[in-house]
Every structure is written in structure tokens, then in C-alpha cells.
Design a protein that fits this description.
single chain, 738 residues, TIM Barrel, Immunoglobulin-like, 8-stranded parallel barrel, 12 helices, globular, binds alpha-D-galactopyranose
Length: 738
């Protein structure tokens, strides 16, 4: 199959696989226009050639021969401002004469096999060249001697298209890029809903759906990170779209810094969508011969609802974004001491948790915050990555040896991008904290952000980490980031480059992550930012899992994990059982329910196992054994949302193993009902011809999906859960199932 069809005479590009078609045309005046993005078609014959209409107050090109063609309404691919289009431009560049009009026109194209990597930035990749094809379209503004390259990669067997852009200065003057979207896409007149994942600390990725209305709407983060507040994802869906029907286009920005997602519905009901680095406070100096590259946007198209869109993201991010030996490996069941001890621990306390955890079958112990400098609270020591001897007199090596001798793996917490005022590092380098000289430093958890745009700062932290990691046998690292950036400024940059600081910070972070993860390929990395404040594809490229939320309450987690699953695979979602009353919500839920919710993720514990009753320990043992038996299905199976955690008292979801041999369906009840409802449970993703056994009964796959079965209506009080394990018993349905 030709993934990229080029019709030279019509100047049409048709990117297509079995899922979607994406059609571009070089329009009159060499403007790159968008003609169709939707369900796949075999051949495109120009059905969406844009109509010519004379509209008052819609300007025409200087070289226009009539009044019928204006950029004011045309659907475009990388629109500028100042030549007739009054909608939001994809780029804005200030030139040496102070003007900001850039007029990019089509110059040439190139089709290459596979998918090129972005320089210094994360992006999904291919393993074989024939997995994808890439179209690179070159646009040019001859007056300003600027070139824009739009890069489109279409995957062969996935409903995935990626886009990014490069802007190159081929002249002799300096330009300032004030905005460079990774993607701009215009869709024709239609009603659309937008789905976003917004929230705050402890309430990340709450799903919200609203109608796209006339005007401009921006969803963004100005925090220097992808944020708890607005995940770098949005989906455009038709108002009728459900989880399993209707069109859905998901956009996911592979970037961990300040981002911006813009929607503009114009006077004709056409919608422009843009994603990229946040233009707020951004300005990038582009000297002669330099090139600026945007991060990449991943687009997942589905003609069959939002679940299929999510599954496209899941498999891509699991198989072609995450890297290294842990990408496909079952992830260990961990126990983390944070909620068990906070800062209040010593070696004996840690050892007692380790002893008990090892006896329960838990596989990895993670020593969280508080092991370094002289850190007894969150006011000190960030930046001093050496052992706090009072707390761990035998050092990390002693502890690692102890833990390994118990047959467990050893993990360690770092927060490499931060500095405390009370630290050796701050004494030596007070100017390394991001700050504006002469202005106070805003606090966040009484700590400050290191200027990772500076090489010497990055090098110092990398050296400190290497000193620990070369010496201590460590199997896992939790990489935290516990505040956002304020007083943005870098002492190392001149005044006309201060608009670059936040992006240079992210590039610096990516460089450090590349260095550390490449040097320690055996270590499993988990990213974290006060829970899920940096749960984005950029981080997943370096670290295959993320701590989903500091909120470990099972009921709150139903929504958080549901929202997260819109984009991110289950293998990326850390989920732990914690103590009750829950430390974030003060809610009491059963150990069973906490376990059932946490198993729908990368499972672990975060409580003091030494304080558990014998009965509770027995339950933990059972949970560990159960998760071990079905871990592959949970972590790498295909995930199906059945009932929304956002609008149902009975959220439900399920997992189907990679080989289809088993499935696990999870039914949750939030509040109990007097006179409980008699509910039918219908499943998804099964083989309709196969027979499955569940709870000692046999049903056909078609029966389970179309007929379903009644859920036993028992009143158990609030917060109940049940997991159904389905096993395929034979390939095809024989006679009557019982
Ligand atoms: C963040 C993390 C927690 C814990 C603390 C330690 O809040 O999300 O899990 O590691 O930092 O300070």
C-alpha cells in the first residue's frame, strides 16, 4: 500500500492507510491547503476542492486576478497572519524591520521511508522503515528568506499520523519566532465537541466535553511543565460520538513544558485547531543558518468512537514511544515508603518494611524522599544528592544489599531539577535557581527550580547522580518534580533570548534524561510531578511509567485512571494501595476495592505493611499472587472502558490479554443503593466465536458482548468492586452454551 500518494499535476498529497485519509493540495498562489481528513478512501478525486466565493472584507492576494479567492476562509495547513487570513496564525515571526508578516508558499516536497527523529526531543519512532512513510513539505517566504518544513508521518498499521514543523533562516538577517505551532489543522463546517483532560494536584485528567463555539478558545499550561491543570491532549469529536461509535480525532503533544492548544471556530463554522509550545512569553532568536524545530503532535483518528482512538494511542505509546528493556517487560509490584513514613524514617524502620514486604511477595522496595543531604522535612537539601548518614548509617549500598538479599529490587527517589535554599548546592551556586536578579524568588513547597537551560547546572546534577548510581546497585528510579517555574529568567542568556528559557529548560531536561537513561539501561524509571503533574508523552519516551496521582483514594482514582486512559496506556500508570482513612480524601474503602482499582495499573503499595493485621496481610498476599498471575493482561492487554467513571455510579472497564486467551472485567460500585439496580454487564473485545469460562459458567463471546449477564444485586455498602476473570476454553462455540 502506498501510504503517501502524490498527484503531481493536481498538486495533491493523499496520505492514507486502512484507517484514514489526509489530503493536502497546493492551492492557487502556492498556498498549502487542507482538503480532507477523515475515514479512508481509495482515491481522492477533488470532492473537497474549496469553492470560490467573493466575500466582502476578505482580502485577496497582491497577485490575485479576481476577488473569488481569499485566505480568510480557505482551509490551510500552516497559515500566517497579515495576508488576508484573520484567524489565529500557526506561526508569528518578527523580522529585523519590526514587521511580523510571514507568507509561506509551497516550494517542494520529499517522501522518505520510515520516520525521522526530532533533534533533542522525544517522539514516537519506527523499528522497521516500512512501518511508516514521511512526507516533508517545504514552504518558503522568499522576501524574509525563511523556510518552513512541515513533517507528516503516517504509520502503516496504526491509525496514527504525526506532525511537526521546522523553521529555518536561510538569509542573513536575524528573526524572532514568537509562535511556531507544531500543527495547525482546519476542518470544514461541522458541529464538534472538544474533550480535554484538566484538573489540579490530586485531581488530574478530569475529562471534560463541551461544544466548540464561535470564537477562540485556548487550553494551556504556562507553568513550565505539561501540568496537572491541563494535559497536552485534546480530542475533537462529533456531538453524537460515543466510546464505540462516531468520529474522533485525538491530538497529543509530545512535550513536557508549557503548551498551548487552540481552537477557533470561524464565522463559517469552520474549526482551526493548533497545538504546540505555548506562545505566551515565548520568543526564539533565529540567527542566519539556524533552524528551530517544534515538538511533535501525534494524531489518532477513529471512525468508531473514542475508545478506538485511545487504543491507538495506547499501542503506539507502549510499543513505539517507550524504549529500552522495560518497554515490553512486566513491571514489578512495588512498595513505596512515602505514605508509610513521610520523612520520618531510619534504617531500622525501612528494614522492617522491607522484611514484611518481602514476606508478602512484593517485588521492589522504593526509598522515597528523605534519604539525602540532611533532609528531615521539605525545607532542605534538594540539590545535595548524597546519603543522609544519620538516617541510613550503612549508606545506600548497605540498604541495597539488604534489600537484594531479601530477593527484592531496590528503587530510589530523586528530584534532580530542584534546589533548596538550605543546601550545599545553594551555598555554592545561589544563582543556579531560576530567578530574576533583584526580584524575590517565589517559593513552591519552599524549594526552587534549577536552571536546566544552563549546561554547567545540568552537568553538576548528572555528576551527582552518576556518583550514586555507579556506586549503588539500584534497579528503579522515581524522578520527581514538585513545583512549577516562576520568575522565568536565565543568567546565562542575553536579554533578547529570555523568551527561550522555558523551552531551553525542557530541552536541557531531555538531554539529562537521555544521558542518565542511556547510561543505566537496566534501571526502570518512573516519572512523577507531585503525582501526575507531568504525565505526558515526552516523559514516557524516557521513563515508561508515571506516578498517576498523589491521590491514592480508590474512588478518586476511578476518575483519574479513567481520564488518564484517554491517551496513556495502562503500563504507564502507577497505581498503589494506600492506608485508610485515605491521606488525601480521608475516605475509608476496603482493602479489596483499593487493590482492585490499583491493579488496573502498574500495581503497588504505599502504606506501612508492618502495621497491618494478619488478615490484611493475607489479603495483600492474595492480591500479589493474583496480580502476578494476570499482570501481563493488566499491563499489556487491550483496555476497554465499559462505563464512565465520570457519569456512572457503576464505572467498569476490562482488559483482554494480548493472545486473547483471558480477559479481566472490573465492575465498581461507588455508592450503595437501597433496592439495588439489577444491572446487566456486557463486555467488549472478546472473540465472538469462542467460549469463555467465568465464575464457573460458560458463555459464548458473542453472548457476553451482546447479551451479557446479570450482576448479582447485593447491598454491600458503599465502595464495592468485583473482578471477573474470563478464560477462553476452546476456540469455537460448539453446541449450546449452558
Ligand atoms: C511528590 C510525589 C510523592 C512523594 C513526594 C516526596 O509529592 O508525588 O509521591 O514522592 O513528592 O516529597
Amino acid at each position: 500500500m502506498t501510504l503517501i500518494q502524490v498527484h503531481e499535476t493536481e498538486r495533491v498529497f493523499h496520505l492514507t492507510n486502512e484507517y484514514f485519509s489526509y489530503v493536502l493540495r497546493v492551492e492557487e498562489g502556492d498556498v498549502l491547503a487542507q482538503e480532507y481528513f477523515g475515514q479512508a478512501i481509495a482515491t481522492y478525486n477533488g470532492g473537497r476542492y474549496y469553492p470560490r466565493v467573493d466575500r466582502s472584507f476578505s482580502p485577496n492576494f497582491p497577485e490575485a486576478t479576481d476577488r473569488l479567492y481569499s485566505l480568510d476562509t480557505l482551509l490551510q495547513e500552516y497559515p500566517g497572519y497579515g495576508t488576508g487570513d484573520y484567524r489565529t496564525p500557526a506561526q508569528l515571526i518578527r523580522h529585523e524591520d519590526g514587521s511580523t508578516v510571514t507568507d509561506f508558499r509551497y516550494k517542494s516536497y520529499e517522501v522518505i521511508k520510515g520516520k525521522p527523529r526530532l533533534a533533542g526531543m522525544p517522539s514516537p519512532y519506527v523499528e522497521q522503515e516500512d512501518e511508516a512513510s514521511t512526507l516533508i513539505i517545504t514552504l518558503e517566504d522568499p522576501k524574509e528568506r525563511l523556510v518552513a518544513r512541515l513533517v507528516y508521518t503516517i504509520y502503516r498499521d496504526r491509525s496514527i499520523l504525526t506532525r511537526s514543523a521546522q523553521i529555518q533562516n536561510v538569509g542573513t538577517e536575524t528573526h524572532y519566532i514568537q509562535k511556531a505551532a507544531s500543527l495547525s489543522l482546519d476542518l470544514p463546517l461541522q458541529e464538534l465537541d472538544v474533550i480535554t483532560l484538566n484538573g489540579t494536584w490530586g485531581r488530574e485528567r478530569m475529562m471534560e466535553r463541551e461544544r466548540v463555539k464561535r470564537g477562540v478558545k485556548v487550553f494551556d499550561s504556562k507553568r513550565g511543565s505539561s501540568s496537572h491543570q491541563m494535559n497536552p491532549f485534546l480530542a475533537l469529536v462529533s456531538p453524537e460520538t460515543t466510546e464505540y461509535t462516531g468520529e474522533a480525532i485525538g491530538f497529543s503533544l509530545v512535550y513536557s513544558g508549557s503548551h498551548q492548544m487552540m481552537l477557533e471556530r470561524d464565522s463559517y463554522g469552520q474549526t482551526r485547531v493548533q497545538l504546540g509550545i505555548n506562545e505566551f512569553g515565548f520568543e526564539w532568536r533565529l540567527d542566519p543558518d539556524e533552524q528551530f524545530e517544534t515538538p511533535e503532535v501525534v494524531i489518532a483518528y477513529s471512525a468508531n468512537g473514542t475508545m478506538e482512538m485511545s487504543q491507538s494511542f495506547h499501542s503506539l505509546y507502549r510499543e513505539r514511544l517507550a524504549r529500552g528493556k522495560h518497554r515490553d517487560a512486566e513491571r514489578p509490584i512495588l512498595i513505596n515508603n512515602w505514605e508509610a513514613t513521610y520523612f520520618d524514617f531510619d534504617e531500622d524502620k525501612i528494614k522492617s518494611i522491607v522484611d514484611e514486604s518481602a514476606a508478602l511477595g512484593i517485588e521492589l522496595f522504593v526509598l522515597d524522599d528523605g534519604w539525602f543531604g540532611h533532609r528531615d522535612d521539605d525545607y532542605t537539601s534538594l540539590g545535595d544528592w548524597f546519603e543522609y548518614e544519620t538516617k541510613i548509617p550503612n549508606g545506600l549500598t548497605g540498604l541495597a544489599d539488604y534489600i537484594h538479599a531479601k530477593g527484592m529490587k531496590f528503587g530510589l527517589w530523586f528530584e534532580p531539577e530542584m534546589i533548596s535554599k538550605e543546601s550545599e548546592l545553594f551555598k555554592q551556586h545561589p544563582d543556579w535557581a531560576i530567578q530574576i536578579p533583584g526580584r524575590g524568588l517565589s517559593k513552591g513547597r519552599d524549594q526552587y527550580v534549577l536552571d536546566f537551560s544552563r549546561k554547567e547546572v545540568r552537568d553538576n546534577i548528572v555528576h551527582q547522580m552518576i556518583e550514586v548510581l555507579d556506586r549503588v546497585p539500584i534497579d528503579y528510579i522515581k524522578w520527581d518534580f514538585n513545583r512549577n517555574v516562576t520568575e522565568v529568567f536565565s543568567a546565562a542568556l542575553p536579554s533578547d533570548q529570555q523568551g527561550e528559557v522555558l523551552h531551553r529548560y525542557v530541552l536541557g531536561l531531555y538531554e539529562v534524561l537521555e544521558t542518565i537513561t542511556a547510561r543505566y539501561p537496566d534501571i526502570l524509571f518512573e516519572s512523577c510531578s507531585g503525582g501526575g503533574g507531568r504525565f505526558d508523552p515526552g516523559m514516557l519516551y524516557y521513563m515508561p511509567q508515571t506516578w498517576t496521582s498523589d491521590n491514592t483514594d480508590a474512588i478518586a482514582r476511578l476518575k483519574i485512571q479513567h481520564g488518564t486512559s484517554m491517551v496513556y496506556p495502562i503500563s504507564s500508570m502507577g497505581a498503589h494501595v494506600s492506608a485508610v482513612p485515605n491521606h488525601q480524601t480521608h475516605r475509608e474503602t476496603s482493602l479489596k476495592m483499593r487493590g482492585d482499582v490499583a491493579m488496573s495499573g502498574v500495581f503497588g503499595y504505599e502504606l506501612d505493611v508492618t502495621e497491618m493485621s494478619e488478615e490484611e496481610k493475607a489479603t495483600v498476599k492474595d492480591q500479589v499472587t493474583f496480580y502476578q498471575a494476570h499482570r501481563r493482561t493488566f499491563q499489556y492487554g487491550t483496555f476497554y472502558r465499559l462505563k464512565s467513571a465520570f457519569d456512572s455510579n457503576h464505572p467498569a472497564w476490562m482488559f483482554v490479554s494480548e493472545d486473547g486467551e483471558e480477559a479481566i472485567a472490573c465492575d465498581f460500585s461507588v455508592l450503595s443503593e437501597t433496592a439495588p439496580l439489577i444491572r446487566v454487564f456486557k463486555l467488549k473485545g472478546l472473540d465472538e466465536k469462542a467460549v469463555y469460562e467465568v465464575d464457573g459458567r460458560r458463555y459464548g463471546g458473542d453472548e457476553l458482548m451482546r447479551v451479557g449477564f446479570y450482576i448479582e444485586p447485593v447491598v454491600k455498602g458503599d465502595f464495592a468492586s468485583k473482578l471477573y476473570v474470563l478464560k477462553k476454553v476452546n476456540e469455537h462455540q460448539g453446541g449450546q452454551s449452558k
